[in-house]
Amino acid sequence: MQTKQMQTQNQNSTAAEGNLPWQPLFTIERSGRKEVTVYGIICLVAGIAEGGSTRQSIDTVKPLVQLGDINYQLWSRSLLKPWQLIQHLPILKQHYPQLKPEHLALFMASHSAEPRHLELLEEIMKITGADEAGLKCPPAAPLSSETKSQIEEGQEKARRRFHNCSGKHIGYLSAIKASGGDPDKYLLADEPQHVRLRKVLSALIKRSEESLLSTTDGCQLPNYALSVYEMAYLYQSLLSTTEAAFTDSQINQCGQYYHELGQLMLAHPRAISGAGRVDYRLITQDLFGACEAPLIAKEGADGLLGIGIGSCEKYPQGLGLCIKLSSGFDNRHMELIAKEVLRKLKLIGPRPEKRKTPRDIKVDHIKTYFHFDVASSL
After folding, report:
1. What does residue 340 show for φ and ψ, rounded to 5 degrees?
2. Is 9 within the bounds of a domain?
């Protein structure tokens, strides 16, 4: 029997089919005629200190930007990885004290299978005793050009370790091995690791576990639908210092490690991503130069990007941003939007002057318009 909340969600989903949740995010015009319009959803939230609350929950943020239907529920895809890790991080720390912070970062990676990523996987397997044969993510070609060249030369072929989620999967295998579970069942949604994950999400977003719609992700693990607003909040929470309210006995140990997730992303951006990737360039601030606050980011399949922005003078409780592109992931479009949000927040400098072009090259007829602004007050 469906709960009333689930019935409402299904009705909203049906309505969305005829009334899509996307809105124009930015438009490029050439000589006054629209040439490109990118559609999607943007939600930016700011942390607020209301009522002296010392516990982390979705009630501790408010939206500053909402374009498109920010309550529309999307599959969270790889944006879920920090919370997939936290549900068994206490087990990993207790049983494998030899694991280094860089290893822990790889457990929430969408890595490119660069040589260092593969070295980290080997080190983890030696420490935990888990091996590639136990991985249930699909065999894949690496994103790394260096590793890919080895395949083209006949030295390697598609392997499970090359899958961008293999770090997450080896984390699941290692934790299940330590806790005495059945490694063959680690994909099953009713196993303890997924029960804990749903409890973690429920505690943070203040929704019932039963309301979390589920699917099978591309890597074959269960994945859950979260609203764009909820995902923006979750990324804000990663760099917050507010205590995570995990009171359920099955997840209460997670609270003491919760804020380690954001610090791992800050310290090891290459481990969780790869050279040239949008999230790597955001964390290292290579994309725009200096930012007035620490920043973490995570790419998700099919046009998702989550960004957490730490405390700064303008926003002492930090910010969270979720971007969804309706047409799927496009590096250039995602970079343009992320930079514009940061400029409107006045966290990075103004857009640089256009580079000089020869006098006979006309460019002033091309203009870009962004369809969002940032609320001026909290």
Report:
1. -65, -40
2. no
Report the 10 Å Cβ neighbour count for 12: 14
pLDDT of residue 243: 86
In a domain, 157, yes or no: yes
- Residue 7: predicted pLDDT: 47
Q: Is the dihedral of CA 86, 88, 93, 98 positive or negative?
A: negative
Q: Measuring CA to CA, how many Å separate 77 from each of 40, 152, 221, 303, 353?
A: 16, 29, 10, 10, 37
Number of folded domains that form the chain: 1
Domain containing 339 — which CATH number?
Answer: 3.40.710
Closest CA to 42 of 90, 81, 8, 74: 74
Instruction: Tell me what pLDDT residue 1 has.
Output: 39
Which residues does 377 contact at the CB level (< 8 Å), separation at least 6?
Answer: none
| DSSP state letter for 274 | -
Domain that holds residue 28: 19-349+363-370
CB under 8 Å, gap of 24 or more: what pairs does 333-337 form?
333/26, 333/38, 334/278, 334/303, 334/305, 335/278, 335/281, 335/287, 336/26, 336/368, 337/25, 337/26, 337/38, 337/42, 337/370
Q: Is 226 in contact with 77 (CB distance < 8 Å)?
A: no
Type of residue numbered 252: N
pLDDT digit string, tens, across residues 253-262: 999 999 999 9
The 3-state DSSP class for residue 15 equals: helix
d(CA 87, CA 199): 9
* SS3 sequence of 295-327: EEEEEECCCEEEEEECCCCCCCCCEEEEEEECC
Q: Which amino acid is at 93?
A: K
Rounded distance between C-alpha atoms, residue 80 and residue 58, angstroms: 16
- On whether residue 356 sits in a domain, the answer given is no
As beta bridge partners, residue 216 has 222
Q: What is the DSSP letter of 213?
A: -
Inside any domain, residue 308: yes
